[in-house]
Amino acid sequence: MAADERASDLKPLAPGLYLVATPIGNLEDITLRALRVLRSVDRIACEDTRQTQKLLNHFGIETPTLSVHEHNEAARADELIAELRDGKRIAVVSDAGMPGISDPGSFLVKAAIEAGVAVYPVPGANAALSSLVASGLDTERFFFLGFLPSKAGARMTELEEVRARFEEAVTLAVYEAPHRILETLADVERVWGASCRVVLARELTKVHEEFLRGTVSEVRARLAERDRMRGEMVLLVEAKPGAAKGAGSLRERLAELEKTEGLNEKDALKRVAKERGVSKSELYRELQRTDRPGTRGTSRPGKSASRDS
Question: Comparing 304 with 57, which gets the higher pLDDT?
């Protein structure tokens, strides 16, 4: 077996398209096969040539690079497919992780397959899977959503559609930006309720790697206390069917604060507004839209709750 592996390493690299995973933070996560492929191909198609050049310089690799990103991948495809048909060997890399997973690469793969060109995956680091296996949530059934829409309405719609899709519990994996994470957590709470379990993985494989585990309301409250948030994030959600959604989750959080911290509804609403990164008036309007007579007492936040904090 070992002799066969050594012989494989000495064989010339076959023509084709190579999808090469690169480290997501720690350079020690590069694989031996990835290094051999990057040294052996004729060209490396990079999401960002400057970012990839740092990796190549670190490992002493001098293979020529060219830029292939989301804005030019379709335009570059004809040029690259022509080279592949002529027997060239081309590697595709993203800035970090596996190309084609929320990164450029999938268009070129489809074009290569249609052209009859061999496509070879070269496995390695992936943020979603690394987060999942360390999350403590179910790994048997999971659903990767990539990046959710940046606009609140579209994001909420997608989460509602996901909720309706599954009749059994499933772990959701989402990529999110630091400046939107509080809004996304608030939407998760609206759809699956305040007691929904989540795990937020941040800065994976880097010096400041962090996992925040708890209910969505707990994790959101902890993040809201921070002055600022940095780093790439993966959000894992334990999505259970039949979980509370809509303003019910807001009411649940208000009741929790009133019970555990002795806050009146006005102060509880102010706290939740800070947690969600929205104004008190926005939350008050949400309650007004969804409240029905008889579902709760006649108490309402004071006048000041109708003004932005």
Answer: 57
Among candidate residues 126, 88, 128, 84, the one with its CA nearest the CA of residue 108: 84
CA distances from 265 to 289, 300, 301 (A): 17, 7, 6
What's the CA gap between 119 and 99, in Å, rounded?
13
Instruction: Give the whole-angstrom CA distance, residue 90 versus residue 14.
Output: 10
**Cβ atoms 97, 22 nearer than 8 A:** yes
Least confident of 25-34, 83-92, 137-146, 255-264: 255-264
Residue 198 backbone dihedrals phi, psi, to 5 degrees: -135, 160
Alpha-carbon torsion, ordered 269, 270, 271, 277, to 10 deg: 100
CA distance 74 to 234: 28
**Per-residue pLDDT tens for 104-132?**
899 999 999 999 999 999 999 999 999 99
Q: How many CB atoms lie within 10 A of CB 234?
A: 24
Closest CA to 196 of 151, 245, 154, 256: 245
- The C-alpha angle 65, 70, 72, rounded to 5 degrees, equals 65
Provide the token pair at 92.
């595709």
Query: Model confidence over 183-224: pLDDT tens digits?
Result: 999 999 989 999 999 999 999 999 999 999 999 999 999 999
CB 250 within 8 A of CB 221: no
Relative orientation angle of helices 216-224 and 181-192, to the nearest 10 degrees:
160
- From 306, 268, 299, select the one nearest 284 (Cα to Cα): 306
Q: How far is CA 215 from CA 6, 81, 195, in A?
A: 49, 48, 5
pLDDT at 279 (0 to 100): 75
Residue 291, pLDDT score: 60
